[in-house]
Amino acid sequence: MSTTPLPRSIYTNPAAASYSSSPSEALTSNTVFDFHTSLPTYIGPSELIPLANLATSLHLKNLYLKDESHRFRDLPSFKPLGLSWGIRNGIITELSEETPISPTISLSELAIKAKEAQMKLIAASDGKFGQAVARLGKLFGVEGINTRIFIPGDAEESVKGGVRREGAEAIVVDGGMEEAVREAWLHSVAVDGVLVDVEEDENYEDIPRWIVEGYSTIFKELDTQLGGKGPDWIVVPVGIGGLAQAAVTHYKAPRLWGHVTRVLTVEPTTAASLHESLRKGEISAVEVGETIMKGMKYGTVAKAAWPILKEGVDASTVVGDAEVEEAMGRLKKEGVDVGPCGGAVLAALENVLNDNKLRLELGLEGEVTIALISTEGLGAR
């Protein structure tokens, strides 16, 4: 495995412009989007912020930041979009083992059935993930200690407190996150509960896939906010790769208007598993170093995401902590407070724009519209 931070590096794939994705029926039929807009927690699309001053300084026509930091109020992250769709489908699948349930069941009807069945949600978390699972579970009739979050012993007290404030059970595990994940899996089998995790393996694929589908609402909203057509370029941070997978799947699908949005991904120099994989042409694990970009601190990209990202990502780059902090400062001057993963997308764009030859090659001149996806607020972890 690679053990040292990558030097400044930009990967490009010209063939990605002609890649065509195959969205699921749930995406092409707007089922996911309609589900999200029906939730009582949905307060409208996340804000699309024009960055006029930065656009001028970078010699761009249109630059926007889609801000996910207020999506679920004090859960300042994009993740509840995926979790809500994943949890919904997980509960439907579990309940359907006894009696088949219509996939079009309403939220209120599903909550009644889940409550009657004493459905259990199980997850492992060392951040706000567990609190999000607990809160969303309540929407589906899974209340109190029927949601059980396994937390590593060295996690911050705020992690345990956040779970308990939602009324769920915080189970502290001796050991780190790996042991917490193992204990959560064992418990889900023992109590026949729904395990909620973003990482798939050969025996656990459905919920991670549904979570990725849930992220599509971000891009549906963005298209509407831009007048019904996607941007020319979108910049997406990469952790395990689910959000980038959702972006590629959405924007590389056949479109009636014939417009193709190109995708730039960004990772920390110390956790650049996708970037390394793209350069090598095969999925590659990396040893993870320290970074302020905690939400992007993964040593390998998801196996399900890799084939789509390999074919559909147009460009990939890496950024260091110092340049991310500087980018966060520039965004703050624009009146936009973001976390490190939000700063990373601006730093990545600046990386590419600073290479004049590459800028021309990638068509980042003239009347282009670029959207940065800021996945978190300052307290998102």
Count of helical segments?
A: 16
* Global shape: globular
Which H/E pattern describes the elements? EHHEHEHHEHEHEHEHHEHEHHEHHHE
Side-by-side strand order of the widest sheet: 1-10-9-8-11-3-2
Radius of gyration: 20 Å
CATH class descriptor name of the largest domain: Alpha Beta
Alpha-beta content class: alpha/beta
Strand content: 5-15%
List low-confidence stretches: 1-7
* Terminal-residue CA separation: 26 Å
CATH architecture of the largest domain: 3-Layer(aba) Sandwich
The number of strands is 11
Task: Examine the coordinates and then state which fold CATH places here, giving the name of the CATH topology of the largest domain.
Answer: Rossmann fold
**What characterizes the major β-sheet?**
7 strands, mixed
What would the average pLDDT be, to the nearest integer?
Answer: 91
Count of separate structural domains:
2
Q: Please give the share of residues in helix.
A: 40-55%
